Amino acid sequence: FVNTGAIEAAHTEGELAGVLAHEIAHVALRHGTNQASKAYVAKTGLNILDALTGGRRTRLGQTAHSYARTLFLRFNREAEEQADLEGARLMAAAGYDPRDMASFFETLEERGGERTPEAQDDHPDPASRVALIEETLPALRLSRAPVHDTEEFREYGLRIAD
Prior knowledge:
The protein is an all-alpha fold.
């Protein structure tokens, strides 16, 4: 989903298109469904382990819970990278410049303040995401005159800020 904070943070129509393309990519790649399935399997396994240990927090149980959290962080970061790449492809196909998505990540980093250490964060750090998009540009068919910003977007941006 896209919240009004993301819309307000977008400086250009291209940046907003990047946010939307990224979120559409999550849906197209079925990340929500995949995550729910993995969570169900993990929860079932952890519940069985808890039942076998009588519900006591054993070292094995704590290790299993910790490993599951770490594994889900990795899956989430991979899903974010996949959505960034697919979003960049969608942007190029729609006539937008994927560098505008990268620009939005930089905007978020500037506005974000203190970050969670990457090992504990479910999103890759913005600099890595920008680099990933830059690396994929040669493989994309970019418009000679991509949409970057429009008067309609600026008018809409002013209305939502009110």
